[in-house]
Amino acid sequence: MPITNEQIFERLGVLDSMNTQMNSILTTLESMKDDIKENKTNMVELAEKVSDFKKENDVLQSRVEYLEKESRKKNIVIFNIDEKEKDWKDLRELLNSFFRDLLKVDIDLERVEDVYRIGAKRGKGPRPLRVVFGDMKTKFRALTATQNLKGSKISVNQDYTETEREKRRCLVQYKKKIEAKGLQAKIKGFRLSVGDSLMSINDLQSKY
Fold first, then answer.
1. CB crowding 129-163: b at 16 or more within 10 Å, else e
2. What gap in Å lies between CA 175 and CA 116, rounded to an integer?
3. In the UniProt record, does the keyword Coiled coil occur (predicted)?
4. Nearest-CA neighbor of 128 among 90, 85, 81, 192?
5. What is the per-residue pLDDT across 178-206, written as a single tens digit (0 to 9) for each?
6. What is the pTM of this model?
7. Among 30, 92, 155, 161, which residue's beta carbon has the most beta carbons within 10 A?
């Protein structure tokens, strides 16, 4: 049966409607492409800003760490020394006795700028004692004499920053791990001496 003109016009109308819808869809797709491009651009810009912020933050942290290390470089910290002092005068006398009787070194207290306990009193144990020397030479005289503390409950350390203390704690864990294998290990600064090798934390992480 032949198609009538009316049916032809009807079908042309449907095609015209479909073309209109297709054009609308294509327009929407083009708009979405533009939005996607814009979003990608925004994401790239945001990633660059985050990267720049991280770099600035790393630089700032490095500066803060440097300044903190500088402020501590003339200090030592004494652990497990009795806490019986009542005032600053008693504390200086305690320090004088520590130098004279335990370290067996003659250090003029005029070379000591400050001495005080670290932190609030908690529990029964004595708090660490921070000693601030006026010069590096006097500090190293005291540190060299700590060999006389062998066998004593008292120990002396550099006044490390929190970042440095974390590195030292990490080295202690590797030292225990290596010694458990029957090897000798010794902490030297922020490295671990194992046999003939002086290993950084990165070296230790790669090998152990």
1. bbbbbeeeebbebbeebbeebeeeebebebbbbee
2. 31
3. yes
4. 81
5. 889 888 889 888 899 988 889 898 888 88
6. 0.68
7. 161
